[in-house]
Amino acid sequence: MNQLAIQGPSEPIPALSEGSAVLSLIERASRDPSVDIAKLEKLLEWRDKTTADQRREAFERELAAAKTEIPVIVRNATGHNSKKYADFAGIARVIDPILGRHGLSYRFRTVQTDKIAVTCILFGHGHSEETTLAGPADGSGSKNAIQAIGSTLTYLQRYSLVQMLGIAAADDDDGSASGIGSTTIDEEQIGTLTELMQSVGADKVKFLRFFKIEQLAELPAKRYQEAVNMLNAKARG
Predict the structure, then answer these.
(1) How far apart are CA 24 and CA 119, in angstroms?
(2) Per-residue pLDDT tens over the stretch 3-28
(3) Residue 31 sits in which domain range?
(4) Of 15, 24, 201, 228, which residue is most buried, by most CB within 10 angstroms?
């Protein structure tokens, strides 16, 4: 009985045999000029595509599982005009252990020209995906030049991570974050969707038409995650 027939349904089927066979052919090609190099190259391309597909599927499977464990994030900080928001540290405290359990992590890449661009890179299982946001240095208040850059970096890191994961935040009105308090999205979610649409080059008119609304403020809160996921999918192509 072959190996595939005796494995249980929950056991992953190893993909090592195909790779070993290809490596064996490569060894033969180095010693045997009769090996068809063109066919070998096609086989290598097939192996590389298969490996990439397997890694992407593992990444997406674990990301989907992780997202089911991520709760609504408490808005633990207060910004301008007494507006509450979830700061980067508060978000990281919640999501880092969950992502780690699923073999996922993230990092940021920063480029500064006339604007500051921050790319959030989510990676794991041999696959990675990215989302990028950009904006000018935040010179509001009495910030010096370095503080202005730092403020923008923190903001862009927070929002690019939120967009990458499609997570939501809720006011900590009663010490819990068990749900969404309003029937339509709030100002922070409007800002997140606006920036994400600009980042991925989405057509706002088509976006509004899809959700049968005239402005973002009318988007039902229960469809916010759907909107984020749709825009993230556009970013991935």
Answers:
(1) 40
(2) 333 333 333 434 445 556 666 666 66
(3) 15-67
(4) 228
